[in-house]
Amino acid sequence: MPYVTIKMLEGRTEEQKKALVEKVTAAVVETANAPAENVVVFIEEMSKNHYAVGGKRFSDQ
């Protein structure tokens, strides 16, 4: 059973997340020859307060 974890900053719409899950599932089915019903996708949304690059939080930019 393939598990896929996607970490991304908050702010996407429900429609965008739905499309992302559908396309990631399709890619795993195609490349790993796994049945779609066995593909598990986790979306972990990170607060912009909890993500920084170069010493600066995204919420401060």
Automatic annotation (TrEMBL):
Pfam families tied to this protein: Tautomerase
A single GO molecular function term of this UniProt record: isomerase activity
The 4-oxalocrotonate tautomerase-like domain, residue ranges: 2-60
NCBIfam families: PRK02220.1 (NF002571), taut (TIGR00013)
Protein name: Tautomerase
Lineage of the organism: Bacteria, Bacillati, Bacillota, Bacilli, Bacillales
Family: Belongs to the 4-oxalocrotonate tautomerase family.
Active site residues of this protein: 2
InterPro entries to which the protein is assigned, alphabetical: 4-OT (IPR018191), 4-OT-like_dom (IPR004370), Tautomerase/MIF_sf (IPR014347)
Enzyme class (EC, first level): isomerase
E.C. number(s) listed in UniProt: 5.3.2.-
Alphabetized UniProt keyword annotations: Isomerase
